[in-house]
Amino acid sequence: MLHGDLHHDNVLDFGGRGWCAIDPHGLVGERGFDFANIFTNPDLADPVHPVATRPGRFHERLQVVTQAAGLERHRLLQWILAWTGLSASWFLEDEDPLVEVDLAIAAMAAAELAR
């Protein structure tokens, strides 16, 4: 079972009750899918103050997520590339300039896969 829309705005700190993921879409699939969306955020929510596309950030996140979640690096990179392609297609359809965030992250994932 997957959340299906796991990103910075959907994980909230409830203080003493801890962290909680809200707005689940309830998908079934590989858990690497849920982690892929993290790599484009929070830039999609606030492109004026880029975080995800800052130099070195992608590699830092890749290391943290693979270690903390116990995911295989190559497979996570494949999910990141698939997710950014899907997300970019939505932005292209809407002629939204936020597509640049997805394309930048996709290029980083593709470069890592090619290494």
From TrEMBL:
Pfam families: APH_6_hur. This is Aminoglycoside phosphotransferase family protein.
